[in-house]
Design brief:
Elements: H1 5-11, E1 14-18, H2 27-37, E2 41-45, E3 51-52, E4 55-56, E5 70-73, H3 80-89, E6 94-97, H4 104-112, E7 116-118, H5 123-129
Parallel strand pairs: 1-2, 1-5, 5-6, 6-7
Antiparallel strand pairs: 3-4
Helix pairs in contact: 3-4
Length: 137
């Protein structure tokens, strides 16, 4: 039986954020920062920045040298199949498409790779609803 979104998030420690934003007013800027405050290790993925949220930014998932539990996607739906392929290539545990992002192809790729899959849900909302926190802070 597939895991629920809150089970996936509860089990995660490291979240790679594809589409991490320099603008704190955008979800790709505010959500990762909130996840950090909850104690998650956030790895920003953005081809146009060097540091975000106090962390080194990687250009692609393929450049990340550590284990990724969740790939959290803040990119348009047409970009998600390639992101899913990269997530599968690095052995990520889950592919999570944020609110209003849906992709049958990304779902198929994730399923074939054995990844958990979430779409059209916000990691920040799930973390808040289920009071998921990785630290006492």
């Amino acid at each position: 039986m597939p895991r629920t979104s809150h089970e996936i998030l509860q089990a995660a420690k490291t979240i790679a954020v594809v589409g991490a934003s320099r603008d704190p007013r955008k979800p790709g800027g505010s959500v990762p920062k909130g996840l950090q405050r909850r104690g998650f290790r956030v790895i920003p993925i953005n081809p146009y920045a060097d540091m975000l949220f106090g962390e080194r930014v990687f250009r692609s998932l393929l450049d990340v040298p550590e284990k990724i539990d969740i790939v959290d996607v803040f990119r348009p739906a047409p970009d998600t199949p390639e992101i899913a392929r990269q997530a599968a290539a690095v052995g990520a545990g889950a592919l999570w498409l944020q609110l209003d992002i849906l992709s049958d192809e990304a779902r198929r790729i994730a399923g074939e790779a054995g990844m958990d899959y979430v779409e059209d849900e916000c990691t920040a909302v799930v973390a808040s609803l289920y009071r998921i926190r990785k630290t006492a802070a």
